[in-house]
Amino acid sequence: MSSPHLLLVVALLCALIAAVAIFLRPYSFKGRRGNALLLVGPPDAGKTAITSFLTFKQALPTHTSLQVNETQATFSSSSTPKDRAFRIIDVPGHPRIRSQFSNYLGDARGIIFVVDTSNLARSGPAVAEHLHIIMHALTSLPPTTHVPSLVILSHKSDLISVPTSSSRSKIATDRVRSILERELEKRRLQSVSGVGVGSLGDGTEKSAMSGEMGGEMGGLECTGSEGFSFETWEGGEATIIASSLKDGSGTSTVEKGNNSDSYEEARSYDMDGHGLGSLIEWIEDLQ
Ligand SMILES: Nc1nc2c(ncn2[C@@H]2O[C@H](COP(=O)(O)OP(=O)(O)O)[C@@H](O)[C@H]2O)c(=O)[nH]1
Ligand SMILES: [Mg+2]
User: Fold this and answer.
1) CA–CA gap between residue 176 and residue 155 (Å, rounded)
2) DSSP notation for 39-88
3) How many CB atoms lie within 10 A of CB 11?
4) For residue 122, what is the enclosing H or E element?
5) What is the pLDDT of residues 213-264, one digit of tens each?
6) Residue 59 burial (CB < 10 Å; 0-12/13-18/19+)?
7) Cα(287)–Cα(281) distance, rounded to whole angstroms?
């Protein structure tokens, strides 16, 4: 073969190898991207109500669930022209069941940690313990696994009192951020100093550091030396978004009917912390 031909063949081969490498990159280096959305968080936060809204376009009456509930829902996507179908996995918050979220981690694209904003001042330590378990699991994934995005949903934002002219959404997310950052910082300091943080939880179980996850829990490392913050968390992206399924009067914003028009209305309904509009945007933006 003459040398110009040889050069051409080599160049084509290189181009082919580069194209294959680019095509396979998400699979070979970052792991397969799953299609599950996991709803986790303490009991009574609103996980099942949100699942039913995302799935059936309306809030159905819920009751305390003692098993994982799986449904399907389709969302448009900001990165592809096609709609994307997700498995929605509603994991009850009861301490004996909540660790089952880890069975779905390999297929998780996003994790939605739902918090009842209105009672967080009281339940902060227990909620932080639960979130710590999730963050520990995310930071313990094998390096080849795609790490799902995490959103902390400052839910039931209709129940907090907000001075007129203030932003409900900002007050709700600021409250969740400051309480959880403070509690997670306590846990981080205790684990650094080697003192078990089991006593920081709600006291209903001794599992926090040893039993449930089988060993010491890390996963709260941050860049910089300012203590724990979601912004500097090394485990990945963690966003805080406000939502509610009811308006200030206690009327459901998503029970207005069961035809698709009311769904469209509720879907886009995100008036400063009311509705699920910001959460749905977050799902549509998932990479
Ligand atoms: N005020 C208010 N109540 C809500 C909201 N979302 C859910 N709830 C209520 O909170 C209670 C617990 O909801 P549920 O979905 O069963 O919580 P789960 O235990 O996390 O699955 C139910 O009575 C819901 O009607 C909300 O945005 N605002
Ligand atoms: Mg439930």
Assistant:
1) 10
2) EE-STTSSHHHHHHHHHHSS--------S-EEEEEEE--SSSSS-EEEEE
3) 10
4) helix 120-139
5) 545 789 999 998 789 999 999 999 899 999 999 866 556 655 443 334 444 4
6) buried
7) 12
Neighbours of ion ligand 2 (CB under 5 A): 47-48, 65
The protein residue whose alpha carbon is closest to atom 28 in ligand 1 is 156
Residue 43 alpha carbon, nearest atom of ligand 1 = 19
Q: Residues 155, 117: contact at Cβ < 8 Å?
A: yes
Six-digit token string for 59: 């809030």
Ligand 2 centroid–CA 67 distance in Å is 9
Query: 61 CA distance to ligand 1 centroid (A)?
Result: 9
- Strand 69-75 and strand 108-116: the pairing is unpaired
Residue 10's pLDDT band (cuts 50, 70, 90): confident
| Mutate which of 40, 44, 63 for ligand 1 pocket (most atoms within 8 A of beta carbon) | 44
Yes or no: say if 101 and 38 are a contact pair by the CB < 8 Å rule.
yes
34-284: which CATH topology?
Answer: Rossmann fold (3.40.50)
Residue with tokens 């280096």: 29
